[in-house]
Amino acid sequence: MSRKTYLQAINEAIKQEMRRDANVICLGEDIAGGQGGSGEPGGVGSVFGQMQGVYKEFGPERVIDTPISESAIVGAAAGAALTGLRPIAELMFVDFVGVCFDQIYNQAAKFRYMFGGKAKTPMVLRTAAGAGFRGAAQHSQTLHPLFTMVPGLKVVMPSNPYDAKGLLISAIRDDDPVIFIEQKILFGMEGEVPDEAYRIPFGEANVAREGDAATIVAFGAMVPRALAVATEFARQGVSIEVVDPRTTSPLDEDTILESVEKTGRLVVVDESPPRCSMAADIAGLVADKGFGWLKAPIKQVTCPHTPVPFAPVLEDEYMPNPRRIAEAVKAVLA
Amino acid sequence: MQLSRDDLKRAYRRMVTIRVFEERVTQEFAAGNIPGFAHVYLGQEASGVGVCFDLTDEDYIGSTHRGHGHCIAKGVDVRGMMHELMGKRDGLCGGKGGSMHIADLSKGMLGANAIVGGAPPIAVGAALTQKYRKTGKVAVAFTGDGASNQGTVFEALNMAVVLKAPCIFAFENNGYGEHTAVSYACGAPSIAERVRGFGLPCDVVDGMDFFAVHEAMKRALDHARAGDGPYALELQCKRFLGHFIGDPQAYRTPSELEEARSHDPLPKFRKRVTEAGVLEAADLDEIDRLVAGEVEAAVASGMAAAVPDPSKDLTRDVYVKYG
Questions:
Q1: What fold is seen in the domain A206-333?
Q2: What ipTM, to 2 d.p.?
């Protein structure tokens, strides 16, 4: 066990799985970097450094730099997966899904069902998501609801370094297509991460903090924010439970419902515009299956129904922040 | 002629099977026995059979919305196909794919594809698997003239060249993308000329002549298998019917339709092999009889076959494992 960042946890998972299984290959834009330049290739290792050193260890046969052609990247990963490999494709920013979504939702996600259960598509699409980087409207979205509503896809949103490694290893070993959403704002987050390979199963929520006064369900980068708010409430003697579903598909409904049964009060924090968000999804789930336990109306803390703004003062207000989360918790406790 | 008598019989049988199967699909569709919509391959038999003739079950093809002919050319069983088109539980895809998603991975057939331009990126991926594993096998991306204008196809062509993928792009130019002529929709002087701009060879081939297609495909296979990267063919074909069954085709004159039929690949093949004295007319007639019986049996068993059971089949096979 040693302290590692979220970024290092991702990098370590990829390297360990590539050592373990020769069927694992990587493809994407600048995952090695520098191909065809006058200097040495391999020094970029993805724009945020997730693939640092992978090319050096595994070489160009397994770490394939592609043209900037997202449809071809995702489609090639799907085709390679369909014919026996376990590709890890990188979509540099999740915002770029607009140019390749067909290959994800009409192709990879549907092969198994359309072909009557005879196909396996064991691919991972890693992608960086989220606001807080002053990246503006086309480099800051989360878009996890878009993937979550597609049958055939699994959607993973790690909220800390330990989960990032364990969930990515599970994703690589999974036989279905997995969208692995890396939270940009968490890349530098440190935590204890075992050196050896380990798996965290999909569809098992993490109760990140136990409590009995109210439940916060939060996703990805919103989990640390929810935990910070819960810590503040604890100082005032109010114990808040924080549930991190870890994967939005499959979704661990049971843990969420058990928590709401215990607390009777629910806040959902989701870095997403409100319509058709995970916040709305969880609120709908609890209204459907746990209405009788509720002692107060459910509160949803989301982004506004706007594109992500550029100016820091606007972006900071766009994202669910501790102040807005705390206000919601106070409202359900009132 | 380098092809043996058995080879020629096999080629003829596959072409006739496509012809009889598709004619029957047209009838069964009209009779209401095939749900949804269907795009038939009538007229293009030589193209698919010529491209697939030297492929093994370990070579892959990605297909189009007009995929029945590609299936048969790749050796897929017509009984399973007909059952699938009828939406039956024991169809190739359990009745869940239908005409536009018919697939048989055991035959290297990676699926018809209802998204125009959907398959080429996938075929590049299948080709990368062959390159990485050094199998010497290839992947073929069947693409229509309509799809030749899609961005996915441009990306796939370029990436196949950059990564030297053993991928063969078979552009079947049947003159129309849906209901719009290629002369209108393709801004380049020709598909082949534009494809060459991506940095790979592209031969223009008479797609109505099995022998021409087969010869061109041999060049493509030699190139791809030698590790020289992708190769393309523009197969010039004639679509006998409309875009889909029932398309009134007001955009094509009667004389154009008649002219298209004059290129029929089946009499052309028959004439060539009988005049060369390689096969007798009786050999070919015998194949006609066998195929007619095979398709008849597929329809009869398809009509009698069970439909899927919603209580069991609706929600299964979305994932290998979920939750």
A1: Rossmann fold (3.40.50)
A2: 0.94
Contact A79, B121 (CB under 8 A): yes
Contact A157/A94 with Cβ under 8 angstroms? no
Architecture of the domain spanning A2-193: 3-Layer(aba) Sandwich (3.40)
Give span(s): CATH 3.40.50.920, chain A: 206-333
**Residues contacting A193, CB < 8 A, separation 6+:** A1, A2, A3, A4, A8, A9, A12, A161, A162, A165
pTM of the model: 0.96
Q: Which of B118, B128, B323 sits opposite A107 (nearest CB)?
A: B118
- Write the residue in B101, B104, B106 that is nearest to A114 by C-beta: B101
Strand-strand pairing, A247-249 and A154-156: antiparallel
User: Of all residues in chain A, what percent carry a pLDDT higher than 70?
Assistant: 100
Chain length of chain A: 334
Active-site residue numbers of A?
139
Tens of pLDDT, residue by residue over B146-188, are: 999 999 999 999 999 999 999 999 999 999 999 999 999 999 9
Residues on chain B touching A152 (C-beta within 8 angstroms): 318-319
- Residue carrying structure tokens 């919305």: B65
Q: Which residue of B has its CA nearest to A114?
A: B97
B93 and A115 within 8 Å at the Cβ level: the answer is yes
Question: Do A85 and B159 lie within an 8 Å CB cutoff?
Answer: no
A79/B129 CB distance under 8 A: yes
Q: Class assignment of domain B5-313? A: alpha beta
